[in-house]
């Protein structure tokens, strides 16, 4: 049995286009009407796809979570690489949208799509030698520090200058070195 062709006009919007427009908009100024206008559709047409502004922000958060998840499983020899890759992906994906890193940092729409990222991050930290309870604390400390950097950087409030730029890689090195030292101190190798 074959599917018959769909009747009527093809849809002018889809989930990917909706997310792309919403993700490029500062969350503080995001409105359903604004997204609909950018898409060239009526607000009621957008409401057929997304229940409300919060659901729209959840879609963006879930999409970002998917894009920042590194494509490999962290292990004892790759946990640092996994965290570094995640941090660079996060910076690249949310750094260009003023206000979005801050929104993630403060917890708004944090849960949408976040579980796979957190699960992999906790696996990275336990592979490094942390116990599960400590791994969660280390993850929140690490991710908050990375989001803090991206928040300052994307808001043009960063203390670096052209003559004396701040280095994200130095920041990551300090964070990863601190994690490694904390894990070693709490769980010395036997």
Give a short synopsis of this structure.
This protein is mostly helical and 190 residues long.
Question: What tags apply to this protein structure?
Answer:
190 residues, mainly alpha, 61% helix
Notes on the structure:
The protein has about 190 residues and is mostly helical. Helix content is about 60%, strand content about 0%. It has helices at about 15-25, 30-40, 45, 55-70, 80-95, 100-105, 115-125, 130-155, 170-185. Helix 5 packs antiparallel against helix 7, helix 5 runs parallel beside helix 8 and helix 8 (about 130-155) packs antiparallel against helix 9 (about 170-185). It is globular and about 65 Å long.
Class per helix and strand makeup = mainly alpha
Coarse morphology: globular
What is the radius of gyration computed over CA atoms, rounded to a whole number of angstroms? 20 Å
Could you tell me the number of beta strands? 0
One letter per element, helices H and strands E, the order comes to: HHHHHHHHH
Provide the β-strand percentage band: under 5%
* Tally of alpha and pi helices: 9
The major β-sheet equals: none
Look at the structure and give the mean pLDDT: 85
Helix content: 55-70%
Unreliable residue runs: none
**What is the straight-line distance between the termini?**
65 Å
């Amino acid at each position: 049995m074959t599917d018959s062709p769909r009747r009527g006009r093809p849809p002018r919007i889809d989930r990917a286009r909706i997310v792309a427009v919403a993700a490029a908009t500062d969350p503080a100024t995001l409105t359903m009407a604004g997204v609909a206008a950018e898409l060239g559709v009526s607000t009621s047409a957008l409401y057929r796809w997304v229940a409300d502004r919060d659901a729209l922000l959840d879609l963006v958060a879930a999409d970002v979570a998917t894009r920042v998840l590194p494509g490999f499983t962290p292990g004892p020899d790759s946990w640092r690489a996994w965290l570094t890759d995640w941090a660079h992906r996060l910076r690249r994906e949310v750094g260009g949208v003023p206000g979005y890193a801050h929104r993630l940092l403060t917890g708004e729409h944090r849960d949408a799509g976040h579980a796979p990222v957190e699960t992999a991050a906790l696996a990275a930290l336990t592979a490094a030698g942390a116990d599960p309870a400590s791994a969660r604390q280390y993850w929140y400390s690490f991710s908050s520090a990375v989001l803090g950097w991206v928040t300052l950087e994307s808001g043009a409030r960063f203390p670096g200058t052209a003559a004396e730029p701040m280095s994200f890689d130095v920041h990551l090195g300090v964070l990863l070195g601190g994690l490694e030292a904390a894990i070693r101190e709490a769980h010395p190798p036997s």
